[in-house]
Design a protein that fits this description.
Shape of chain A: globular
CATH superfamily of chain B: MetI-like
Helix content of chain A: over 70%
Number of strands of chain A: 0
Order of helices and strands of chain B: HHHHHHHHHH
Order of helices and strands of chain A: HHHHHHHHHHHH
Shape of chain B: elongated
Largest sheet of chain A: none
Largest sheet of chain B: none
Radius of gyration of chain B: 22 Å
CATH topology of chain B: MetI-like fold
Helix content of chain B: over 70%
Distance between the termini of chain A: 11 Å
CATH class of chain B: Mainly Alpha
Oligomer: heterodimer
Number of helices of chain A: 12
Number of helices of chain B: 10
Structural class of chain A: mainly alpha
Structural class of chain B: mainly alpha
Distance between the termini of chain B: 12 Å
């Protein structure tokens, strides 16, 4: 209970710090929101008036107060580009992105764990070279390059899948999956490479330990030693790394969603950045950082559940 | 240094060395006009004897452009990593060496910064400062600082507990002297390893930023910009994407291989 209260306090504190960092980063720009709304050719008096009414002449601390107050009361302001309430935009786009986040994470884990285990079991033999080499190549290519290759192969070459666009799963589930598939694969491949490397090194360490030798000595089958005993001990660190990769995923999502014209959170963030839509940038950056923090928190809790050796004192 | 004599280490060193040589030498031998002058009669030519790697949508030789892009990518990535070391090293050392409340406050800040995906942070800073060559360096450098600070802090904490540090302290060494003479030299290997790995990520980040139009700006040649330009011509000229893509891949692959071997050789925990 004390642990949970501590964590809760820590989450609130971190959210507060995230909001401050977001505010600072988005306020270092030389231009200002008023000029962005009215354009650079506008009448200086009108500009000054707008600046006053937007509160841009207030001290930073007051401006921050307005912004954070709005966030807490559910008034996230209006996007300058989309002319829509930001709260509404965020809800739509988060829904769209969660589909590809879940799909890419699933693709990555389903492929990475067996590949990593296979490499660790056959350490320093050809299987290891193949698996580790593929993983190394995977972490060395940018996600958008994977994306372009996938478009060339599956969309242009074979014509199996659409290369751009988004469909709401509630409207047409099949089409939604088809649109989400290539972006998820582009994200998943890079992620898979990271996780394969992690699984391999963790498993290699565990397979050298005493209890594995005991297991073999008492006549357990190799399959049971590897997949039950060793993997049970390796899965914790692997899941932790997978959780930490959520941050990496939310960075890559900006590039990949833009490439595939998949209108999710990453695409929205990019539109904000490209058009210097400051209210939109503030909200998207804040939300993404908060999501990453929560993902790490959830991983910590999962770790408690799957690893009985960790007891809270 | 026997550990470098593995095939992985040798391939890594060869790749990194080749890219470095191209980055240094190419601008000396290839006139800038060869890579920027348009030649509309030779648009989107496939690789041939005249154009070894083909031409882009403006008839410029991809071979020349990709070679000149090496300098842009390596300069930005190198300068960004140095920026992150300049910012992160003092932060991490102070935090790890002095500990206490200062450590708590600094690391809370660093952990919060780690909640921001590095690419997002770099994109946001670049967009806010206005994308150009110099701001791309600043943006990537700041975005990578928290990672470096975290690693330096851990190393400083480890080294500060070593018997020789205690011995130096009991013989009256002051903090400044201690950090300079005893802490810094012993955390340097970890910083070098992390720097090499960061370099690989920085090249990917620069390519990503330029690809999105928030990094290097035309007419400068950059691998990310070349991949972006290729998007409209994928059907007719896939090589315009493959050439810069392969350049990024080979460079990052080389750095990763080199980094892996360097870590095995320098990391005290794997000795």
């Amino acid at each position: 209970m004390t642990y949970l209260l501590n964590r809760l306090f820590s989450i609130v504190l971190t959210l507060f710090l995230i909001s401050i960092i977001t505010f600072v980063v988005t306020n270092i720009l030389p231009g200002d929101v008023a000029t962005m709304i009215m354009g650079t050719q506008s009448n200086p008096e009108a500009l000054a008036g707008l600046r006053e009414s937007l509160g841009l002449n207030d001290p930073w601390i007051v401006q921050y107060g307005h912004w954070i107050g709005g966030i807490l009361t559910g008034d996230w302001g209006h996007s300058l580009v989309f002319k829509e309430p930001i709260g509404l935009l965020l809800v739509q786009k988060i829904k769209a992105s969660s589909l590809i986040v879940v799909m890419s994470m699933t693709i990555a884990l389903v492929c990475a764990v067996p590949l990593g285990v296979w490499a660790a079991v056959h350490r320093d033999r050809w299987q290891d070279t193949v698996s580790s080499g593929t993983a190394l190549l995977g972490v060395s290519l940018p996600d958008f390059f994977w994306g372009i290759m996938l478009i060339l192969l599956f969309a242009r070459g074979l014509g199996w899948l659409p290369s751009s666009g988004f469909t709401d799963p509630a409207v047409d589930f099949g089409a939604a999956i088809a649109h989400a598939f290539l972006p998820s694969l582009a994200l998943g491949l890079g992620l898979m490479a990271h996780l394969t490397r992690m699984t391999r090194s963790t498993m290699a360490g565990i397979l050298g330990q005493e209890f594995i030798r005991v297991g073999r000595a008492k006549g357990l089958s190799e399959r049971s030693v590897v997949w039950r005993y060793a993997l049970a001990n390796a899965i914790g660190p692997v899941l932790t790394v997978a959780g930490l990769q959520v941050g990496y995923l939310f960075g890559s999502i900006i590039v990949v969603e833009t490439l595939f014209n998949y209108t999710g959170m990453g695409w929205l963030t990019y539109q904000g950045l490209l058009n210097r839509d400051v209210p939109l940038i503030q909200s998207t950056v804040f939300v993404i950082a908060a999501v990453v923090m929560f993902a790490n928190f959830v991983v910590d809790l999962l770790y408690l559940l799957i690893d009985p050796r960790i007891r809270l004192g | 240094m026997k550990k470098f004599r593995t095939s992985k280490g040798l391939i890594g060193i060869a790749l990194v060395g080749a890219v470095l040589l191209i980055a240094i030498l190419a601008p000396l031998f290839i006139g800038a006009d060869l890579a920027t002058k348009m030649n509309m009669a030779a648009r989107l030519r496939p690789p041939s004897a005249d154009f070894l790697l083909g031409t882009d949508q403006l008839g410029r030789s991809l071979l020349y452009r990709v070679m000149l892009g090496a300098r842009t990518s390596l300069t930005i990535a190198g300068a960004a990593v140095i920026t992150s070391i300049v910012l992160g090293l003092p932060l991490g050392i102070i935090s790890g060496y002095f500990g206490g409340h200062l450590d708590n406050v600094l690391m809370r800040l660093v952990d919060t910064l780690l909640s921001f995906p590095a690419l997002l942070l770099a994109l946001a800073i670049s967009a806010m400062l206005g994308p150009n060559f110099q701001n791309t360096i600043i943006a990537i450098g700041i975005a990578f600082t928290p990672f470096l600070a975290r690693i330096v802090r851990g190393e400083a904490l480890r080294v500060a507990q070593m018997p020789y540090v205690e011995a130096a302290r009991s013989s009256g060494t002051n903090d400044f002297h201690m950090i300079l003479r005893h802490i810094l030299p012993n955390i340097l290997p970890a910083v070098i390893v992390q720097g090499t790995i960061s370099l690989a990520f920085a090249i990917l980040a620069e390519a990503g930023l330029s690809f999105l139009g928030l990094g290097t700006q035309p007419p400068q040649s950059s691998w990310g910009l070349m991949i972006q330009a290729s998007r409209d011509y994928l059907d007719v000229a896939p090589w315009t994407a493959l050439v810069p893509g392969a350049a990024v891949a080979l460079t990052v692959l080389g750095l990763n291989m080199f980094g892996d071997v360097l870590r095995d050789a320098l990391d005290p925990r794997t000795k």
